[in-house]
Amino acid sequence: MELIGRHLGSTSTGRAGRRVHVDEPQPVRVGYHQMGTTRMSASDRHGVVDGQCRVHGFDNLYIAGSSVFPTSGFANPTFTIVALALRLAGHLQRKLGA
Question: pTM of the full predicted structure?
Fold first, then answer.
């Protein structure tokens, strides 16, 4: 998170930070869910994977996880990740004829 914050600041593209209360011990934590880092989109111009989680331009490379979310909300993404993985498993099963 510190590296991301420094990069965003040095390129004037945004800010990232965290709140630390000095009177409370803080466990070491970084971003919990990297959502949107391999964003799903219809074209490679706006994202990394297509609607089947296949990386644009590759026939056999898929990504399933919260990184493909085109946007994120306030709730934990676990059930959505599981549903996405199950959907991808079904797609691959059909594609491979298994």
Answer: 0.63
CB half-sphere exposure, 69, CA atoms < 13 A: 18
Give Cβ neighbours of residue 71 (< 8 Å, ≥ 6 apart).
35, 36
pLDDT band at 28 (very low <50, low <70, confident <90, very high): low
State the catalytic residues: 33, 76
Please report which residue ranges of 11-58 form alpha helices under DSSP H: none
Number of alpha helices (DSSP H) and beta strands (DSSP E) in the chain:
2, 0
Q: How many CA atoms lie within 13 A of 78 on its CB side?
A: 2
- DSSP 8-class letter at 33: -
Q: What is the pLDDT of residues 43-76, one digit of tens each?
A: 999 999 999 999 999 999 999 899 999 888 777 8
**CB-based contacts of 75: which residues, under 8 Å, 6+ apart?**
none
Q: Identify the DSSP state of 13.
A: S
